[in-house]
C-alpha cells in the first residue's frame, strides 16, 4: 500500500484586496467596540440629560444612545480613543440646542466643566500619528476589547482577574493578542 505524502503549503502573503477587506472589518469592529465602551463607562445613560438607554420617551419610543466623537471622527489619531467619546441620547446628540451638533459652543463649555481631563487630553493629543494601517486598527481593537472587559469587570457584570486598566493598555500586552484578534476578524469569529 502506498502512503500519500501531503505537502504543506507556505502561507501566502495577503493581497492588497484581502488587506483592504480586513482593514474595513477591523475598522467597523473598532467603531462598534468604541461605542460600546462609551456606553459602559457612562452607565448606559446620556451624559447630558441623564436618560437611560431603553427609557420610553414622550413620543412613546425608547431612548437610543449614540457615541459622539468629541474631536472629529476624521481625526484618525483619536477616532478610537476612549477619551474622545461622549455617550448621548439622539436628542442631545443631534437636535437639542444645547447638544453636541447644534449647540457646539454650549456643548464645549459643558465638556470643559464636566470632563476637563478628557478635554485637556484631546487638546494635547490632537496631532498624534494617525491610526490608518491594519496593524494600528487591530491594536485599537485589542485595546478596546481589553477596556470593555475591564469595564464589565469593574461594574461587576463579569468576574475576571484583569489588572487595572485605565482606558489604555500597554503596547506589550496589546501586541500579544493583536495576532489573535486579526485571526478572529479574518474568520468572522469576533
Summing up helix and strand content along with how strands pair, one would put the structural category as: mainly alpha
Number of strands: 2
Q: Return Rg in Å.
A: 20 Å
Indicate how many domains the architecture comprises: 1
For the biggest β-sheet, the strand order reads 1-2
Mean pLDDT: 80
Distance between the termini: 44 Å
**Helix residue percentage:** 40-55%
Biggest sheet layout: 2 strands, antiparallel
Total count of helical runs of at least 4 residues: 6
Strand/helix succession: HEEHHHHH
Summarize the structure.
This protein is mostly helical and 190 residues long. It has one domain (17-186). Helix content is 47%, strand content 5%.
Explain what you see.
The chain is mostly helical and 190 residues long. It has one domain (17-186). It is 47% helix and 5% strand. It contains six helices and two strands, in the order H-E-E-H-H-H-H-H. It has helices at residues 16-41, 90-95, 104-114, 116-124, 134-154, 171-186; strands at 65-69, 85-89. The chain has a two-stranded antiparallel sheet. Helix 1 (16-41) runs parallel beside helix 5, helix 3 (104-114) crosses helix 4 and helix 5 packs across helix 6 (171-186). The N and C termini lie far apart (44 Å).
Tags for this entry?
190 residues; mainly alpha; 6 helices; elongated
What is the topology?
Layout: H1 16-41, E1 65-69, E2 85-89, H2 90-95, H3 104-114, H4 116-124, H5 134-154, H6 171-186
Antiparallel strand pairs: 1-2
Helix pairs in contact: 1-5, 3-4, 5-6
